[in-house]
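hiii, so i know i said id send this last week but things got crazy w the move. better late than never?? heres the sequnce for the chain we talked about at the cafe, plus the structure i predicted for it. fair warning i was half asleep when i ran it
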Amino acid sequence: MYCRVRISATSEEEANKISKSLVAKKLVAGTMIYKGNCHYWWNGEIVEKIYWNIGAFSLVKHKQAIIDEVKKYHSDECPIVAFNEINGNEEFLKWIDESVL
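okay and structure toks below
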């Protein structure tokens, strides 16, 4: 099963560390980092903050290893690491297969 992974990061530096580590360890085929404004509930208050978000593609079997790797670098108490199963064109899925362990 193939998946898209969404990961939040509190800074550009943190996002780059997470991204490079996941790719180097072949847990994801590749990443894209983008910045955005966020609003969310935390400890009974609405928080407004800028986050760097990492989009990646992988295999569902790497879910726990990806979560563990993100937690090594992430400074939030509750980092966002979300997985969505995907399907796609044959060449794209082959690239994922060839790029991860």
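btw The mean pLDDT is 97. thought thatd interest u
miss u guys!!
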